[in-house]
Automatic annotation (TrEMBL):
Keyword set includes Ribonucleoprotein: yes
Family, per entry: Belongs to the eukaryotic ribosomal protein eL8 family.
Keywords: Ribonucleoprotein
Domain Ribosomal protein eL8/eL30/eS12/Gadd45, chain residue ranges per copy: 394-485
Protein name in UniProt: Ribosomal protein eL8/eL30/eS12/Gadd45 domain-containing protein
Recorded GO CC terms: ribonucleoprotein complex
InterPro entries: Ribosomal_eL30-like_sf, Ribosomal_eL8/eL30/eS12/Gad45, Ribosomal_eL8/Nhp2
Length: 501
């Protein structure tokens, strides 16, 4: 070989090495941008079939010669499978992110590719923390693939494509909505919730489903089904079934079914059951079923609930029930209590409730309520987060008699002034005084000077009992011989009240 040919070959080798190094650097930069953890792994030599998937949070990427492939589990490693231009990552039904040419895409099931689509055009899912947003010139779009609707959670002017590694179904303005626990639209893994205001929908664990406004539907095995207007359908193994209103239906083994709108029926795993209406049922532990007779849960007419062992549930809105103490609560119709999650008893504003002497009741935070027992009036007195009941008939009478002989001090300034001067008596505070900072220091002063004090519900009632047409937030009752006996009785009862924690 001539000297000139040798020099030319050497230059070509240098150029090839430089271009290969540049490709490697650009790929390393891409991996570092998408997943910093992946950078040191990219340089390692991987086998022909098994490749390491680089983890970033709950997202995985597998690398082979500068390209990204599908992660398929095989032992502790993952097999990278090339599939067209996009790549899919799947592991135990979780969601992963595939990256190609610097763009991020959301992958859902093995062999299925998804991207943000609007009117036949493709858009890029732009990363924002752990969420992905579909953005096109500041407008709002829906993620669509072959007629199937996917993620869209409203956040400001954008829509979020992914939330905590799961996809949800939503479309704005009366079509499909995203399910969020505790809001109008709910589809949470492993539980039954209400999706559209006043309507019922069933979400099956770990899958993507479509909620159709005004109807009851169940979709199984991650498929979306068409709901025909005026009929109720259950989606099972890719088929549609019709429930006829007013009849009883059989639940097929291991599946969830929706019966007639507004009625409650029972499905239990592993057996065939007939739906019976008008009963109280309990949900099976960890499953998406509506209710088995003889347990501790109440199914509310017109709403479906999933009961989970060890949690508390709320009774029917607008109705009163009795709560039985324990981990689980039974709602018993005909009593004067409303069961609220995480509380023993809750007083509802504007209602009268029965208070048992010496027991504690939980009223709504920052509000006082009137209790009734055998025709006598009581008031709720705070003890930490609980309240007890104090007879208020004698208290009002005592205020009235003290005002006649002018043995009262009224108003915050006057009461505070004479407490500091050493006057003794009973302090009565109105519980509806706002802001509470007006007199929040008075209970401390009373406790420092061993003065008994009590709350009553209304400052208007307190003012009128003192002979005034104006509301009064605090009164100090001083002892007097004209009503000494009644004063002593009220003094004793108020003194025995439990102090706030």
């Amino acid at each position: 070989m001539t000297k000139q040919k040798k020099e030319k070959a050497k230059k070509e080798e240098v150029v090839e090495e430089d271009s290969a190094a540049a490709v490697e650097r650009s790929y390393s930069d891409l991996i570092a941008h998408v997943n910093p953890v992946a950078q040191p792994l990219a340089s390692k030599k991987l086998s022909k079939k098994l490749y390491k998937c680089v983890k970033k949070g709950k997202l995985y990427t597998c690398v082979k010669k500068g390209k990204l492939y599908t992660c398929v589990k095989k032992g502790k490693l993952y097999t990278c499978v090339k599939k067209g231009k996009l790549y899919t990552c799947v592991k135990k039904g979780k969601l992963y992110t595939c990256v190609k040419k610097g763009k991020l895409y959301t992958c859902v099931k093995k062999g299925k590719l998804y991207t943000c689509v609007k009117k036949g055009k493709l858009y890029t899912c732009v990363k924002k923390g752990k969420l992905y947003t579909c953005v096109k010139k500041g407008k709002l779009y829906t993620c669509v693939k072959k007629g199937k609707l996917y993620t869209c959670v409203k956040k400001g002017k954008l829509y979020t494509c992914v939330k905590k590694g799961k996809l949800y179904t939503c479309v704005k303005k009366g079509k499909l909505y995203t399910c969020v626990k505790g809001k109008l639209y709910t589809c949470v893994k492993g539980k039954l919730y209400t999706c559209v205001k006043g309507k019922l929908y069933t979400c099956v664990k770990g899958k993507l489903y479509t909620c159709v406004k005004g109807k009851l539907y169940t979709c199984v095995k991650g498929k979306l089904y068409t709901c025909v207007k005026g009929k109720l359908y259950t989606c099972v193994k890719g088929k549609l079934y019709t429930c006829v209103k007013g009849k009883l239906y059989t639940c097929v083994k291991g599946k969830l079914y929706t019966c007639v709108k507004g009625k409650l029926y029972t499905c239990v795993k592993g057996k065939l059951y007939t739906c019976v209406k008008g009963k109280l049922y309990t949900c099976v532990k960890g499953k998406l079923y509506t209710c088995v007779k003889g347990k501790l849960y109440t199914c509310v007419k017109g709403k479906l609930y999933t009961c989970v062992k060890g949690k508390l549930y709320t009774c029917v809105k607008g109705k009163l029930y009795t709560c039985v103490k324990g981990k689980l609560y039974t709602c018993v119709k005909g009593k004067l209590y409303t069961c609220v999650k995480g509380k023993l008893y809750t007083c509802v504003k504007g209602k009268l409730y029965t208070c048992v002497k010496g027991k504690l009741y939980t009223c709504v935070k920052g509000k006082l309520y009137t209790c009734v027992k055998k025709g006598k009036l009581y008031t709720c007195v705070k003890k930490g987060k609980l309240y007890t009941c104090v007879k208020k008939g004698k208290l009002y009478t005592c205020v009235k008699k003290a005002s006649k002989v002018k043995h009262i001090r009224r108003g915050v300034k006057e009461v505070q002034k004479f407490i500091n001067k050493g006057e003794k008596g009973i302090v009565v505070l109105a519980g509806d005084t706002l802001p509470i900072e007006v007199y929040c220091h008075l209970p401390v002063m009373c406790e420092d000077r061993s003065l008994p004090y009590a709350y009553i519900p209304s400052k208007m009632d307190l003012g009128s009992s003192a002979g005034s047409k104006r509301p009064t937030c605090v009164i100090l009752i001083k002892p007097h011989e004209d009503y000494q006996e009644q004063y002593d009785e009220v003094f004793e009862e108020v003194s025995t009240l439990p102090k706030p924690l």
